[in-house]
Amino acid sequence: MSDDDLREMAANRGCKLVTSRIRTPGKKGYGLFGLKDAKSGKAAFGLTRDKPSASAEEIETFLRGGATSEWRRSLGKTPRSAPKVEKKRAPKPKPAPRTAEPKLVVRAARPADAAAITTLICALGYDVEEGEVRRRMARLAKAGQPTLVAMKAELVGVVTTAITAVLHRPKSVGRVSMLIVAETERGGGIGRALVEAAEARLREAGCGLVEVTSNVKRLRAHAFYRRLGYERSSYRFAKALDD
């Protein structure tokens, strides 16, 4: 194998062929070769005190015999590894779709609503039975003053009204006689929606004024009505009548 062939083979193995400087045949060191790392310049094979000391056959055997991998490890180099396979990331779980907030609906109460309405009234501190509530609802509806309820996923509020014809005013006086919103639903606009629906009914019935009855102890209720534009205009006096 010629010097040029050795040089090409060395280059293919990442080495640089070093040729002896001795040009006189028969003289010590003539026709010897060595190998250096092409990048770092460090001795790889066949160099003694940085002078070539291996024959062409030894260089060829070294290059063909796979000894270059051992030489690379001796230099602290890591043999070329298999291509890194990028692990596919598992797709992020999609967030659960948000459950749409049930739409608020205000409608006239039905007989089947009596149980839920009774629960709300009792929670306000009044002692009443479902059967009596159903009968009273029927009387109010017959008098043209139906009970109104607020519905979301379930019944969450109720309002009742009354109409009084008076001599001292040109139009009848409407009254919000009861307003209850479930404790867990307060502050979400349900009370306002019920009052506005009651006002619309009373306006349609010809009332010129709407009054609200609220116990003096219910300070939060008073603040609520003031936010809706109601003003304290009078004192209310009450007296229980014997049967």
What report would you give on this structure?
With 243 residues, this protein is of the alpha+beta class. It is 30% helix and 21% strand. The protein has 7 helices and 10 strands. It has helices at residues 3-12, 56-64, 67-74, 114-123, 130-142, 190-204, 219-227, and strands at 15-19, 33-37, 43-45, 47-48, 51-52, 105-108, 148-151, 155-164, 172-181, 207-212. The strands form 3 sheets. It has a 5-stranded mixed sheet, sandwiched between helices. Strand 2 (33-37) and strand 3 (43-45) form a beta hairpin. Helix 1 runs parallel beside helix 2 and helix 4 packs across helix 5. The radius of gyration is 50 Å and the shape is rod-shaped. Residues 78-82 have low confidence and may be disordered.
Helix content: 25-40%
Q: What strand line-up does the widest sheet have?
A: 6-7-8-9-10
* SSE pattern: HEEEEEHHEHHEEEHEH
Average residue pLDDT: 86
How much of the sequence is in beta strands? 15-25%
How many β strands by DSSP? 10
Q: Biggest β-sheet: count, sense, barrel?
A: 5 strands, mixed
Structural class: alpha+beta
User: Could you tell me how far the N terminus lies from the C terminus, measured between alpha carbons in angstroms?
Assistant: 132 Å
Shape: rod-shaped
The value of Rg in angstroms is: 50 Å
User: Treating each run of at least 4 consecutive H or I residues as one helix, how many helices?
Assistant: 7
Oligomeric organization of the protein chains: single chain
Low-pLDDT runs of 5+ residues are 78-82
